[in-house]
Amino acid sequence: MKTIIKTDKAPAPIGPYNQAVLVGDTLYTSGQIAINPKTSEIELDSIEHETELVMNNLKAVLEAANMTFENVIKSSIFVSDMHNFSKVNAVYGTFFNDENAPARETVEVANLPKFVNVEISMIAIK
């Protein structure tokens, strides 16, 4: 059985999907982009700010499922320009401790929704 996870502390979906789905003890988050959940506006001030907003949106979704970044076992990062990898990685890394960091892939893509520069999704377990 699946449970839909919703929170107003992260952006509402912009299509036919949910912020996350919990199946048993496994949480699958949808990709988050740099939408400010308070204003519903995209914030592209810098790649660092964008990444921090994405991670904070994911944090809100995890918390809605009674989880934290400690529960994350896999992250998928999509960037529009691999030259931004080190900046994205630096911000992303502040949300994890190295000993318990999840598995991850980072992929450069041609475009992302709303033409943002980074999108991240996660899988977490209780």
From TrEMBL:
CDD domains tied to this protein: YjgF_YER057c_UK114_family (cd00448)
Species of the source: Tenacibaculum todarodis
SUPFAM superfamilies for this protein: YjgF-like
The protein, known as: Reactive intermediate/imine deaminase
Alphabetized GO MF terms: deaminase activity
Family to which this protein belongs: Belongs to the RutC family.
InterPro entries per the UniProt record, alphabetical: RidA, RutC-like_sf, YjgF/YER057c/UK114
Cellular component annotations (GO), alphabetically ordered: cytosol
Top-level taxon in the UniProt lineage: Bacteria
